[in-house]
Design goal:
The protein has 493 residues and is an alpha+beta fold. The strands form seven sheets. The chain has a seven-stranded antiparallel sheet with strand order 1-2-24-5-8-22-23. It has a four-stranded antiparallel sheet with strand order 11-10-9-16, with no helix packed on it. The protein has a four-stranded antiparallel sheet with strand order 13-14-12-15. β3 and β4 form a beta hairpin. α2 packs antiparallel against α3.
Length: 493
């Protein structure tokens, strides 16, 4: 005969389980609970504390059989599930660290050189400005927007923008990681190239870009936190008046000093040809160097622009910092030089007026002389503007794309802006905005091309360089830049 099964009440079962819990489990539960409740307080939503009951069951009572596999008679099941269990815990931990603490990012382009180099891997602190609550909370934590060619996130459920309390606000001069503002609508064939959707439409027309799938792929929408990550320097804050004159930035009428490692493109001549060691020692990437040899065979003869160079000397066009110029002068290598922007008009180059922000207003502007005499006022939360035709050209994308008025437009017949179906003479901004630029001033796609960066696109600020790899060197030929490991990622602050 089988023994009768003892029936006990839920309360008695609960008491037994609590009584039989090991001390180590209580300690682990206490540590995890403190961390969890601190996170709930930071989130400011005490309804989340209900999940404390789940933690209590995981560590103490064990009603939900999460560890059923430990009692399996199959060694294979126990082995496989132990790995699955460890992986799930690791992914959950990574998810929370990446979402609320910080994350590693790679520098893919030269727009911030020589402050940050192509091939730098950065640790980006999200707690400084306060982390955003994930707007697409259901996503795979180790990738950005695609995994094996498929979306790594679900569009729904989605969460409205909200930022937790940070240590401080974005400051002028900060290097900032943010989601690409013009990356809301993307051509899948060009998402990872400088040719963003708005630029493609401007160059080739809406119909061509949206119907020629062979050339442009699918046209899709990316949520804010799934847009491409950019890293630039903040040069203008909410409410500031911003302009550039002769390469010098003016904020509220006051000239700003150049960052230590800012660089511009130069036409320069040397006393001998530059070799590979010269380029490596100076920090000039081969891909950034244009060779003109010798000058008397160069295009339209560039010698009048660098008269101290002999007609037989070699000349180059490359981005240089003041430190690189000083080094070549000290070595007796540099014979003459001039900023390339002063030469470019001679060759009908360097006029970006048709593609600079804001379209329709930036004619005659350039990367070195931007914003006109009046400059651009950067939107600030609570700031009200008159909706004049000129202001509409400047702020239309902010109103339409970032502040959720997709049907807003300028009605030529009435001469008024229509927002949410009604005429509007003024508009009050709901968010703060920033103006971002790269330190590689003549080779940076930044706010001068696509405009203001909304606060909900801000990710964080890089703190240190974790590792750095020179893409033009071999593993046994200086590929690892040991001198950059653990270096301050924002040395000008």
């Amino acid at each position: 005969m089988t023994e009768p099964i003892e029936k006990i009440s839920f309360g008695e079962n609960l008491r037994r389980r609590i009584k039989d819990t090991k001390v180590t489990h209580w300690i682990r539960f206490g540590i995890v609970s403190l961390i969890f409740l601190a996170w709930v307080a930071w989130m400011g939503d005490w309804w989340l504390a209900i999940f404390e009951l789940l933690l209590f069951d995981i560590y103490i009572t064990g009603f939900i059989p999460f560890t059923w596999w430990k009692k399996s008679k199959s060694a294979a099941v126990r082995t496989v599930m132990s790995w699955v269990d460890a992986l799930v815990y690791a992914l959950i931990l990574v998810y929370f660290v990446f979402a609320f603490v910080g994350q590693n990012y790679q520098i893919p382009s030269s727009s911030l050189e020589k402050t940050l180099l192509t091939g730098d891997y950065l640790w980006v602190n999200k707690m400084v400005y306060g982390p955003r609550v994930p707007m697409t909370p259901v996503h795979f934590p180790l990738v950005h927007n695609e995994l094996f060619g498929f979306k790594s996130y679900l569009d729904n459920p989605s969460v409205e923008y909200r930022r937790l309390k940070g240590l401080r606000n974005v400051e002028e001069g900060d290097i900032v990681v943010f989601n690409f503002p013009a990356g809301d609508t993307v051509s899948t064939r060009y998402e990872n190239s400088p040719n963003y959707y708005d630029f493609l439409v401007q160059m080739h027309g809406w119909k061509e870009v949206n119907t020629n799938k062979r050339e442009y792929g699918d046209i899709i929408y990316r949520p804010v936190d799934r847009r491409q990550n950019f890293v630039k320097r903040c040069v203008g804050l909410p409410g500031d008046n911003f302009k550039i004159k002769g390469d010098t930035i003016y904020v509220n009428g006051q000239a700003r000093e150049f960052p230590e490692n800012v660089q511009f493109s130069y036409l320069f001549a040397t006393s001998r040809p530059l070799d590979e060691d010269d380029l490596h020692n100076l920090g000039i990437a081969v891909s950034d160097l244009q060779v003109i040899e010798p000058l008397n065979q160069g295009r339209a003869n560039l010698q009048p622009f660098i008269p101290a160079a002999s007609p037989q000397s070699y000349a180059y066009i490359a981005p240089l910092t003041s430190g690189m110029i000083d080094k070549m002068k000290a070595d007796g290598l540099l014979t003459d030089w001039i900023k390339f922007r002063l030469v470019a008009p001679y060759f009908n180059m360097g006029d970006y007026g048709d593609i600079l922000f804001p379209t329709g207003l930036a004619g005659g502007w350039s990367l070195a002389d931007y914003g006109g005499e009046q400059g651009l006022t950067i939107p600030a939360k609570g700031m009200t503007i008159e909706l004049t035709p000129e202001n509409w050209l400047i702020y239309q994308r902010c109103i339409r794309n970032y502040e959720n008025h997709p049907d807003a437009h300028y009605d030529a017949d009435s001469g008024r802006v229509i927002i949410d179906g009604a005429p509007a003479d003024t508009y009050t901004f709901k968010m703060d905005y920033y103006f971002m630029m790269g330190d590689n001033r003549d080779a940076s796609q930044d706010s001068r091309f696509w405009g203001f960066v909304p606060e909900d696109h801000i990710v964080g600020t890089p703190m240190i360089v974790l590792a750095s790899f020179d893409q033009e060197r071999g593993w046994f030929d200086g590929k690892i830049r040991f001198n950059r490991i653990l270096r301050d990622a924002n040395p000008d602050k």
